[in-house]
Amino acid sequence: MTKSELNPAVANGLKARQRWHPAEVVFWLIAFSSYFLLPGKHLILNEIAILALFAISLDLILGYAGIVSLGHAAFLGFGAYAAALFAKHINPDPLIGLAFGTITTTLLGFITSFLVLRGNDLTRLMITLGVALLLNELANQLGWLTGGADGLQGVEMAPLLGMFRFDMFGRTAYAYSLITLFVMFLIARRISYSSFGLSLNAIRDNSLRASAIGIPVNRRLIAIYTIAASFAGVAGSLMAQTSQYASLDVLSFEKSADVMLVLVIGGAGYLYGGMIGAVVFKILQDWLSALTPQYWHFWIGLILVIIVLIGRERMSQGVAGIVASFKRKTPAAPGPAAKAEG
To answer: Whole-model pTM above 0.90?
Structure first.
């Protein structure tokens, strides 16, 4: 489905949705100003930016295409190890390593996307979880390459753009991750507000009906799954480059569960929901782990139960929900047919 095939009213509606709302501008102004306003928090801000990008990658398949995944950390971890190995053995340049990690993870996403097409949601859950567990065990067994349980150590990154060194305070790391997050968000935003994004919504709501009206369901699902994998690969590459370390933890089920929780908190299908959820989750994690180091998982779980009991729709009416509701209320420009009738 191309723009030329769209009803003029629908095409105008898409153009209206693509316009930036003032709340979105404020969101990003706050995000970039945090670099200067929170000088002592660059390390945790860097973690938030990477988690937000990881959440966007899951949101693309869960919130927009309806593909549930319990093993999305497979792409995060693959990207992390790819970027770390590339920096250690081939070239320590961050941008080249980021491209390498993204490309290799995109290929992995494309290959595994054919498995996800088979069966129903339960089958997809098992397949995605199985892929993540398989990669985790593979990384554990190939200790000569990945470092095994000890992790891949000795990764040293060259200065970013040949000028900005990665310091222990996370200044360069956060600037690097935040700019990358913004660029990837622009791509995700363009996807979600396109005819391709509309077709994904149709598939999510009713795949049989979407197929009946001529939408190539399988090709759309392969495409978005591959794109989501590449986004996760970027997040994994950033994680390995900014920490200069990669471990089995990035492939664990806990990482997949964390990003799912982030979307539950922020709201799936918003893009901004994943980023807001990442902020809330990391702040809660940092605060609760300092308050009760041994039991912070319990409190996070309790908060999740409360969210589910109250209802995700109510809890997600933060900035993401407000932006979405405002954009839905934005009137679309009348199409040629409407003008002719007037």
So the answer is: no
Please answer whether residues 14 and 342 qualify as being in contact, where contact means their C-beta atoms are separated by less than 8 angstroms.
no
Quickly tell me which residue has 């060194």 as its tokens: 165
| Residue whose tokens read 């969101």 | 27
In one-letter notation, the amino acid at residue 324 is: A
Beta carbons of 88 and 152 less than 8 angstroms apart? yes
DSSP assignment of 168-184 = TT-HHHHHHHHHHHHHH
**Coil, strand or helix at 252:** coil
Q: Total domain count for the chain?
A: 1
Interval 202-219: pLDDT, tens: 888 887 888 888 888 888
Render the burial of 247-256: b for 16+ CB within 10 Å, e for the rest: bbebbbeebb
Residue 90: phi, psi to the nearest 5? -120, -65
The CATH number linked to 324 is: 1.10.3470
| Residue 9: predicted pLDDT | 62
Q: Give the residue with greater pLDDT, 307 vs 34.
A: 34
* Nearest in space to 131 (alpha carbons), one of 112, 156, 114, 155: 112
**In a domain? residue 3:** no
Residues spanned by the domain of 304:
12-341
Instruction: Decide: 106 and 75 in contact? Cβ < 8 Å.
Output: no
Separation of alpha carbons 287 and 279, rounded Å? 12
